[in-house]
C-alpha cells in the first residue's frame, strides 16, 4: 500500500480548506479486467496505472491511498492460483481496516474514506461500498491477518462498474438481442513493464445457437427485472413486458436522452445517426434500435459467462487449482467445455447488489456512478439497476451516463472532486 499526504499538512497548512486531520481519504484502485491491480504512485509508467488521478487528488488536498489488490491471473511458486474471487475485495477491505487501525499515524479522516475505480475496478469500489463488514469476508480477512476494524466506507465512486455478473449475460441480450454482429478489440500482447498492451480489432456474426441463446437470456432478464420491484423518482414501479419493452426501457432511454441534452447544451453536435431526435435544440425522443445500431454490439452470447470459459469472468471464479468456472446455471448446463459451477455463496458475495437491502453489509451513504452512453462492455441496465436500487433504499446517488463516452473512467476528475468536497462538507 502506498500512502500520499500533501506536504502542506506537515507544515500546519491547508488545501481547499482541508487539514491533516480533516482531509478525505481517497482510495483509487488499478484493477482492470479482474486482473491484479498493483499499488500505484505519481509518475508510475507501468501498466496499469492511474498516476494522473493520484497527482490531481493530492493537489486537491486529499490523502491518497493506493493498495495493491490480487487478481485472477496471480499464481504462487507452486503455480496455485492465489488471486481468484473474492481476493480483490478481501485485499481492499484489509487495506481500509489497516488505515483505520493506524488512524493516529496516517493523516486524513477515516470517517470520510472514498473508493474509486473503473470497470472491474469500479465493481471493486461498488462492492466494497455496499458490503462494509459483511459476514462473508470475515474468515478471509482473519486468514490474511487483517486488523480487527471496520471496513465500511463513506462514499464510492464507480466508473462503468462491470458487476452483477450473474445477471449481466441476460441484461446484455435484453439490450442487444436485435444486433447479430459484434466487434471489439482483443489484446494480442499483454503489457510488459512500461510497454503498453497491443490490441487488434476483431469482429464476427452470432451463430444460430448464439441467436437462440440470446432469446432465452433476454426472456430471463425480463423475469429478473420484474422481480426487483424498482421504483422511479416519481414512485412508479419499473417493469418490462415479455417483449422487453416497458417502463424500465423508457427509464433507461431517459438517462441517455438527458445525456444527449446535456451534450447539446454544452455545444456538442449530435448526429442524426444516433437515433436521438432533436427539435430546436431540445431532445424529444430516442430511437432505441437505431441508437444500439449506432453504438454496436461488442460481445457474443453469453457475453460474460461464455460457453468456452475464455472470458475474464469465468476465470475470476476459478479456485486454487481450477482456472475457470461458470457462474450461471445457463452456461453450466450449456457449457462446451468440461466445467464446474462456482459456489453460489461466492457468486452472491461479490455482487454489490446483495447487500443493499440486507442487514448484513453496511452500505456507504454517498454514491457517484458514471457509465458512458457509448459503453458496450455491459448493458446499460446494469448500472441503472445499481443506481436505482441504491436510491430506492435511501442512499444518496449521483448517477449519469456521459454522452459519447466509451468504457473508461476518471475523465471528469474536476467534477468528481467537486462532488467529494460537497459530500464531505456535510459532516
Ligand atoms: C473489464 C471489461 C470488460 O468488458 C469485462 O468483461 C470485464 C472487465 C475491465 O475493463 O475491467
Automatic annotation (TrEMBL):
Pfam families per UniProt: BD-FAE (PF20434)
Record InterPro entries: AB_hydrolase_fold, BD-FAE-like_dom, Tannase_B
SUPFAM superfamilies named in the record:
alpha/beta-Hydrolases
Q: Which Gene3D superfamilies match?
A: alpha/beta hydrolase
Source organism superkingdom? Bacteria
**Domain BD-FAE-like: residue ranges:** 51-150
**Name the record gives this protein:** Tannase
Species: Companilactobacillus alimentarius DSM 20249
Amino acid at each position: 500500500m502506498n500512502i500520499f499526504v500533501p506536504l502542506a499538512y506537515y507544515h500546519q497548512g491547508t488545501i481547499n480548506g482541508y487539514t491533516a486531520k480533516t482531509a478525505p481519504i481517497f482510495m483509487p484502485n488499478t484493477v482492470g479486467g479482474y486482473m491484479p491491480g498493483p499499488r500505484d504512485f505519481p509518475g508510475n509508467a507501468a501498466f496499469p496505472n492511474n498516476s494522473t488521478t493520484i497527482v490531481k487528488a493530492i493537489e486537491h488536498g486529499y490523502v491518497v491511498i493506493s493498495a495493491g489488490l490480487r487478481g485472477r491471473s496471480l499464481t504462487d511458486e507452486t503455480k496455485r492460483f492465489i488471486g481468484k474471487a473474492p481476493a480483490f475485495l478481501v485485499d481492499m477491505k484489509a487495506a481500509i481496516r489497516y488505515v483505520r487501525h493506524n488512524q493516529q499515524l496516517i493523516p486524513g479522516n477515516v470517517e470520510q474514506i472514498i473508493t474509486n475505480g473503473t470497470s472491474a475496478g469500479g465493481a471493486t469500489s461498488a462492492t466494497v461500498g455496499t458490503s462494509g463488514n459483511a459476514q462473508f469476508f470475515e474468515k478471509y480477512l482473519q486468514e490474511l491477518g487483517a486488523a480487527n476494524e471496520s471496513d465500511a466506507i463513506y462514499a464510492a465512486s464507480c466508473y462503468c462498474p462491470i458487476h452483477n455478473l450473474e445477471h449481466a449475460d441476460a441484461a446484455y441480450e435484453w439490450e442487444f438481442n436485435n444486433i447479430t454482429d459484434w466487434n471489439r478489440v482483443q489484446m494480442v500482447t499483454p503489457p510488459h513493464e512500461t510497454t503498453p498492451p497491443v490490441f487488434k480489432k476483431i469482429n464476427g456474426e452470432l451463430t444460430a445457437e448464439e441467436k437462440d441463446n440470446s432469446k432465452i437470456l433476454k426472456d430471463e432478464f425480463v423475469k429478473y427485472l420484474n422481480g426487483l420491484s424498482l421504483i422511479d423518482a416519481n414512485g412508479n414501479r419499473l417493469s418490462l413486458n415479455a417483449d422487453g419493452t416497458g417502463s424500465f426501457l423508457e427509464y433507461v432511454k431517459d438517462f441517455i436522452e438527458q445525456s444527449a441534452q446535456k451534450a447539446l447544451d454544452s455545444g456538442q453536435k449530435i448526429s442524426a445517426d444516433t437515433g436521438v431526435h432533436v427539435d430546436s435544440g431540445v431532445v424529444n425522443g430516442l430511437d432505441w434500435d437505431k441508437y444500439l445500431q449506432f453504438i454496436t454490439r461488442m460481445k457474443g452470447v453469453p457475453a460474460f459467462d461464455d460457453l468456452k470459459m475464455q472470458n475474464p469472468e469465468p476465470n475470476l471464479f476459478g479456485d486454487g487449482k481450477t482456472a475457470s468456472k461458470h457462474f450461471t446455471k445457463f452456461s453450466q448446463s450449456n457449457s462446451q467445455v468440461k466445467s464446474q459451477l462456482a459456489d453460489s455463496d461466492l457468486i452472491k458475495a461479490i455482487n454489490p447488489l446483495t447487500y443493499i437491502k440486507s442487514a448484513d453489509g453496511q452500505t456507504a451513504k454517498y454514491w457517484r456512478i458514471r457509465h458512458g452512453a457509448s459503453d458496450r462492455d455491459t448493458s446499460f441496465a446494469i448500472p441503472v439497476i445499481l443506481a436505482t436500487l441504491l436510491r430506492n433504499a435511501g442512499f444518496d446517488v449521483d448517477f449519469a451516463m456521459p454522452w459519447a463516452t466509451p468504457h473508461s473512467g476518471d475523465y471528469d476528475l474536476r467534477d468528481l472532486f467537486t462532488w467529494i468536497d460537497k459530500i464531505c462538507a456535510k459532516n
